[in-house]
Amino acid sequence: MTSNTYNKVLSLTGYTTSAGKAAPGLTRRDDAQAARMRPVLKDERVGLVADAVFSVQGIPTSIFKDSGEASPDDKQVQRWHEAAWNLGTAPLLWIITPSSVRLYDCYASPSGGAIQYSEPLKVFYIESPDDLVSLNAMCGRLATETGVFWASPVGKQIDRRRRVDRELLNEINALEEALTGLPPAHASSIKLRKGKETEASRDFAQRLIGRCIFTWYLLDRQIAQPFLPDLLQKPLSEIFSSRRRTFALFKWLRKTFGGDLFPMDDPGAEHHRLSDAHLELIQEFIAGRSLVPEMLGQGRLFRFRFDAIPVDLISSIYQQFARSSAEQDAHLQGLHYTPIEVVHLTLDPVMEGVSGSGRVIDPACGSGAFLVEAFRRLVWKSGLSGPVSRQQVRNVLYNQLFGIDINRSALGIAAFSLYLAALEFDSEPIAAVEDLRFNRLIGETLFEADTVDSELPAAVRPNFGPPRTRVLRLLQ
């Protein structure tokens, strides 16, 4: 049950009618379509459990949180704000208390230092008629739908560049560059030409970061703990505090998950490369101390939470790995960061009539941003009549999603992103370590090829035809 104050505010701002009926675009926690926004509206682990989300043309713009009959303390507000920032769903969080409406910027993570709590963009008081009129004029449904909100004193304060995916992208970029610049622990054991050494060092840096984030995800979501050996029953920062534990983790990941999870052609080379300096940088990243040059060493009030950050954001971020690996060829290969809102806008009309048994092929899949969101939608469509089983999720992964790309590194990241998505969409309890094992995707459903010029694998050939007719098919 929502509070009287919450219902009054939503009615006065046009998000509901005077009778309490939701306006078009408002999704409430108990609505059938709320399953698509489960992390925001229903997931107790994430900790936001919002009451409603408002979207304009399918793009979320506001999250509504009712504090009930009591005002929340600063720590509770900070937990809600931190969760909303990590989710990256919408730019504005409304926290409605018995006496006020507090608006928070979901695209901002307060930096460490003097500010040790979440500050609202603006507070509107319930007992002030003028405040409620101003709230409606700036942030009400009409202002949001027409875009007036972005020109208001509230909207002008929101900076998209501080959104969680952009902040994480900046930190990953800085970490990758710092790791790539480090010499191997045993340089005398590695004999490569200068250009090849940089390439190998970057490849190792990417695998190190990938395994760190994957493990971070597993720990934050309480997936790994029941199956980790005693040596690894530690916080993430402690796992990466010693070479012994780090290599024990790598061994456990390879044994447990199989598939294409950041394999290395020569695992022994990792022992020659990994140094204490590599581990110190990883620990700085985990601790939330910035590695971006202009903010070097600065802490953050909000930590990255991989139990909240959606996997579609992670897959978009990881396009940077494919881009940096391609170096000068990145522009020619069309490697660009794809904001998640562009993914949603593209897929909304394409997948509207696709059933849960549909097959999706991305002819230039990159790091898998479009495939991950297509995966989410196929699973959601499969579960319209009831909960989706692990077998159904894996069936979609192995039989309904196909990707083609010219960049081998991008395919590895796409596989990583799809594995993460499969874990996120799986609602069954993980009873045994075998439940975590994946089949390989590269060479089975993800293929290294030039969609226009190459002879494609048999699994996708019927959908595109021979090379000479393929260009026309792609342009249709």
What does this structure look like?
By secondary structure, the chain is of the alpha/beta class. The chain contains 19 helices and 9 strands. A hairpin with a 2-residue loop joins strand 2 and strand 3. Helix 12 packs antiparallel against helix 15. It is globular and about 75 Å long.
Give the SSE layout.
Blueprint: H1 4-12, E1 26-28, H2 38-41, E2 52-56, E3 59-66, H3 74-87, E4 92-96, E5 100-105, E6 122-125, H4 129-139, H5 141-146, H6 164-180, H7 194-220, H8 236-239, H9 243-257, H10 267-273, H11 276-287, H12 311-317, H13 319-326, H14 340-350, E7 360-362, H15 369-382, H16 390-399, E8 401-405, H17 408-425, E9 446-448, H18 461-464, H19 467-475
Parallel strand pairs: 3-4, 7-8, 8-9
Antiparallel strand pairs: 1-2, 2-3, 4-5, 5-6
Helix pairs in contact: 6-7, 6-11, 6-12, 12-15, 12-17, 13-17, 14-15, 15-16, 15-17
Report the C-alpha radius of gyration, rounded. 23 Å
H/E element order: HEHEEHEEEHHHHHHHHHHHEHHEHEHH
Q: What is the total tally of β strands?
A: 9
The count of helical stretches stands at 19
